[in-house]
Amino acid sequence: MASSSSSSATPAPKFDVFLSFRGPDTRKNFVSHLYAALCRKGLYTYKDDEEMEKGGLIPDELIKAIKTSRFFIVVISENFDNSYWCLEELRAIMEVEAVKRKEDINVLIPIFYRVKPGRINRENLAAAFSDMKHPPMEETAMINEWENTLSQLANRASYIFSTRRLLTNKQLYVFNVSVDEATRIEEVVQKISDWWFSGQERDHADIVGIRSHMERLASLLEMESDDEVRIVGISGMEGVGKTTIADYLYSQFSRQFAASCFVDVKKKYEEGGQLYLEQYVLSVILGTGSNNLERMRTRSHHIKQKLRNRKVFVVLDDVDKVEQIHGLAKDKSWFGPGSRIIITTRDKGLLDTCGVQFVYPVKCLSAEDASQMFKQIVFKGSDPPAGFEQLLTRVSRLAYGLPSAIKTVAERSLCKWRSKTKDEWEKLVRKYEEAPFQNIVKILKSSYADLSLVDKIAFLYVACLFNGDDIKRVSNLLDDGESSIQVLVDKSLVDISAQGCINMNKLVENMGRETVVEESDLTPTKQRILWDPQIIYHVLRDKTGTESIKGLALSMCMMPDVLDIERRSFRKMHNMKYLKFHTRNKTSKLQLSPTARLPHMLKLLVWDAYPLSTLPSGFSSGCLVELTLRCSNLQFLWKTNLDLGKLKRLDVSESKELEELPDLSSAIQLEELAVEGCKSLTYLKDLPQSLNFLNAHGCSSLETVSLHSNHSIKHIDLSDCSRLNNDQELITHFLTQGQHDQETLLRFACIPQTTMPSYFENCCPRLSPNLMGFSAGIMVACSGPYHLQFLESSYSWNREEPSITLKPQLYPDLERVEEEAMNYLVIIQVLSSINNNQPCKFLLELPSRFYSPPIEIKEGRVHMFH
């Protein structure tokens, strides 16, 4: 039961058992058997080597071992009381035991080996000083203290090993050696083992969220199956509680197995390398003891040979290298039927590389659980004083659901929380909100340190610029972005939401931003990325930017004043790649001179409420991957031909004055075009063949949309484009032309329409039991004053029970008051084989706030193809 420490749990002692004995009396007989039995049980036991006990003062390492042990077995033999070493060791043990006894925790088993409990000989105690070159001055005082210690020990419930029955006035466990010493030793070891497990259960009893973890892990572990071997990975970011969960599993299940082992893999690997790690694990499982490590010549094939017929429960905690898994648990065949191997790691990619099929990702705590954990630590599970609930929620949020951070925030100021008034709490919470604990950041930096240089740079850009953004967009913007983001996911530094967005925990984001600041030697103009509104304001106003700055993200509503961007504002920022000016308002505090020069290396330009009617002359687009100018004053983007060869996304939504788009035929990689709400836009033509998504919702002046003859459109939204009514040519072109890749299962269109196109038929001869797909036309009516819009997540196709579900977005239009319904044709083309033995259902789902649905399905028709 070698213990492991966790950043999200109280650090466990280093040793399970400290074995104290008189070497010449028992080392090579009784104690050697006892030590072997403890090791077989998986109890990590401290036993000093033969050369250490030479008289004199006890070394510091021995005192440290005593203080870092869970339990103690003291073997009192004939010459125990004439050894200064043994007596001082016992005194140190009794000091630790006294503290634990106050907490009603059993930690000590005395064994009287062929001596009578309570037998104390002061002459023997005095003889303990005989081997010392410089005996202490207070011999008498020390003898009195030893005598008292031995008397206390005699009054403890003890095990007596003797060749004859010894009568005592205490209820003791009396064993006759002549019966079966080995069996009795096993009973002593079992007693320690029972204490160990009861301690584990006590430690884990109040772990917040542990029940839900166990429920989700049950299907992965399949503990009821004795036939198969299961290797289960537990992954998650640093401090999220992986070790705590593994520790709980170990306490719950390891007793059911013939042998077990809990190993801090990273620690043991750093102590002695891969061979030492393998030797250590095998020695614990086989019970040979850590003292025999150097004699073992272990390699992975030896682990396979030794364990393939044993049912074992092994926890490999904090694994960070492939070779560690390959050396300890490369294949299930290495272990006996029914074995369970648990691997915890920050690196899910490592588990994938090693073929671990069952992986449990550990997420941060919910706000409710985080608050409960904080309350549990500070108030011992009791309710906080009245009126403190809101403050409690605020302070627990400082940790953003990370258990290790919650523990740090709670424990570092434990006395402060309990003794403070409500006003004092308010001041303390505000202080921590402004300056979080630095050691939380240090915990997280170890994950960052393991990244390659390219992945570190990607991590910093996500932390400072792209947290919460769409994964595909960010992958396009970063160098080797797809690979780097996958590494960040594997290393548990980011998650990907169900909607495909990158989610980075706020604490991890803060760590990344602090790293950027540290790299610049605390000089803002030397930072790789700028995000602080005050700093950005002064850098742009004073024109102090440097070539070190590669990214800038400014929340314009946080600016202290209006700022003019002039010709020389970006003059020295030659390496700027990412420029983001964003605001929630439709007005901007940034004024732009028509002669201003934007950086020439831009891959991303985001400028909400862009102030000019066109982009500055001399704008360089050769590196541009994304251009987003929402709610702008644009009338034209540019008037001269630009290099658009790398452009993948163009968003000019809500630019109400925009009259036309430039020729986009050269944008051969353009995948997404958003012109939603561009009410002055009259036509969309020369759209590139590469275009996948077109959102032109609300383009009320739009008359013409011409798709490429071999288009790649997956999603086209032309809802509320009233001048496009009955565009049969567009519908036919969308349905019958174009191409799709193997990943394309659905194509979607929403077009204003009053009649069902002739392309659709109510039925189709069943020429084949398995059709290659179908096109569904669904006529939907929406009554005023609402508008209807379909996002990518607004529709779905269920192949198992053939059905199309529509979940449109509805919002009121203050300008539209007439009650006449608007009709839309919703087209969904399913490009996969289907079973036509069941009819296809059309389902409409609306938000619960609509008691009287403003929309309805009027008609549905299907055109099948094979």
Please characterize this protein's 3D structure.
With 866 residues, the chain is an alpha/beta fold. The chain folds into six domains: 15-199, Toll/interleukin-1 receptor homology (TIR) domain (Rossmann fold); 207-361, Rossmann fold (3-Layer(aba) Sandwich), CATH 3.40.50.300; 367-435, no CATH class; 440-517, Arc Repressor Mutant, subunit A, CATH 1.10.10; 519-721, Ribonuclease Inhibitor (Leucine-rich repeat, LRR (right-handed beta-alpha superhelix)); 753-866, no CATH class. Helix content is 33%, strand content 19%. The protein contains 25 helices and 37 strands. It has a 13-stranded mixed sheet, sandwiched between helices. A six-stranded parallel sheet has the order 2-1-3-4-5-6, sandwiched between helices. Strands 8-9-10-7-11 form a five-stranded parallel sheet. α4 (84-102) links the parallel β3 (69-76) and β4 (108-113). α7 runs antiparallel to α9. The radius of gyration is 36 Å and the shape is elongated. The two termini are 63 Å apart. The model is unreliable at 1-12 and 166-178 (pLDDT under 50).
- Number of E-type strands: 37
Radius of gyration: 36 Å
Distance between the termini: 63 Å
Overall shape: it is elongated
Strand order of the largest sheet: 14-15-17-19-20-21-22-24-26-27-34-29-37
Rounded average pLDDT:
83
Summarize the biggest pleated sheet: 13 strands, mixed
CATH architecture of the largest domain: Alpha-Beta Horseshoe
Domain TIR: 13-153
Pfam family, one: TIR
GO molecular function: ADP binding
Keywords: Leucine-rich repeat, Plant defense, Repeat
